[in-house]
Every structure is written in structure tokens, then in C-alpha cells.
Specification:
By secondary structure, this protein is an alpha/beta fold. It has ten helices and 14 strands.
Length: 301
Amino acid sequence: MLRPTSPVQQLAAVDIGSKAVRMVLGNLNCERHLHIQQRWRSFLSLGASVFRAQSISAAQIFTLQQVLQSFQTALPQDTPWSISATSAFREAKNRVEVHQELAKHGFQIRVLTGLEEAKLIHHLFRQQWPELSGTILHADLGGGSLELSLEQDAQLLWQDSLPLGVLRAGKRPNLSSFDALEETFAKVSLNQRQLLVSGGSAREWAERLVSEGIFGAHEPGRSIFEYQFLPLKKAKTSSASIFSRLIEIWKPEQVVISRIGLKEGLLLELAEQLSNEKCRLYLGEEVPVLQVNLPQGVKGN
């Protein structure tokens, strides 16, 4: 395993998602605390192409290469980094060709399975909030998939990945895939149930709830809402519809909306590989996101 060569090691992780490409830069100190320094985002929607035409277009491949080069240029020299891709990339029929093309430019892409995504996110939350107790359902909603982890008293019971994301769902998402979850949920205690949601769609949902005056307790990295105050019947977006249906099935006492997710999980994984020990993400003030603009007409082509 690699080890930090100085008291503070900079490192970065890239998440090639279905809706956007994101990078996060952090500092890992000698106490194994990981401090977020900067975030970048580019609205390159691979899912808009893959979920419609089953492949990543030539224009998108070129743009993805440019985005990764921009990210690499923004990093301090010799910064260790990882590049991972999720549902849109793994479902593209031409993913091997895309992988080879990016490798020509020095970019090695790790394509995650849905269960690998779920494990990374669950590990992040378990390291971040070890005090969480009771029966907890973790749900991370992205553009192409929904990753689920179920735990009771800090013991992982079950994980799954559903092909249900906001890009794939459309304005009226088909939620029939949730029907099979009722049997799984019926096997665990009804007491102290919590729903912990994450992903860009979750953050957007939290912001909408706050703007509508729904009361919640706001802490570093998360917001906590009481179930009975959530306007579930007024869901107007596909993400809100998905979360509302999940809440109806799961029946939690509280809903915790996280402001961290897969990219932070990838960064934590890299930090633990570097230090060969467990690390913890430090959630201080919210770090602004730097936008990387794309050429006109490329976002979803």
C-alpha cells in the first residue's frame, strides 16, 4: 500500500456520473483526517446519450477527455487521483472503445458495479456517522441508478442497485421495481427506522424542502427532517417522486439528507489506500463548486 510521504498528503477523486463529471480534492493529515479543499463539476451528461442510444457519442468522448485534462491541470503536481465511472459508462455498448481511447491520453478509468457504488457510499456514512443506530436504509440516487444499503444496529444486512435514476426515469418514473422491496423491509424492525439519502438529487430535494419552509435540523454534511412534516403528496420532480415512494414503503421516523456521496466515498477509499488505515472525512464549512464549462451543444449529445 502507498503511504503519505509528508504530514499532509493531497489527493483527488473523479466521479464520471450519468448527469455530470465531478472531482473533489482533499488533504489527508497525519491524524488520518480528510479535509475537503475544493470541488469541480462539469455537466457532461453521458446518461442522456447512453439511456437513449446505448452508446457514448464521439463528441462526448472527446469532451470527456477535455474535462479530465482540465481536472488534471487544476490539481497540484503529482497529486494521487482516481477516476471512476458509474451506470451510464458501464451500460454503454462502446465502453471498451471509450476506455481505450481515454487510456491513450493517460486516463485509466475504473468502472464501478452498482454494488461497488453501494459499498463505497455505505462505508463513507458508517465512517462519518458511527453514532447512527437503529434500522437505517441508505439510498443514493443518481442519474442512472439507485443504490440501497440496509443495516440494523450497525450491521449490514442487504445491498442492491436498481436501474432507476432521474435521467432514466423521465417525468413520470416507473416505480414498480420498488414492489419487491416491501418483502425485504418487512423482515426488519419497525422501531427507530431512518432513511439516509444522498446524491445530487437528494441535495436538490433538500434545498427545495428548505425553500418551501419545511423545518429541519441542519448539521455539518446533513439535514434531518421528521417524516410527518414532509410534503410527500406534493412531489413535482422525478427525484421527489422516487424518494416519496421509498418513504411510503420504508416508513421511517426520520429522513436524513446528506450533502456527501459517491465522490467523497471514492476520496475516502483513496485516502485509506494511501494510509493503509481507516480515515474520516472532516466536514467543515461547505466548499464551493467550481464549474467547468462545456462547448455549446455537447452536454447531452
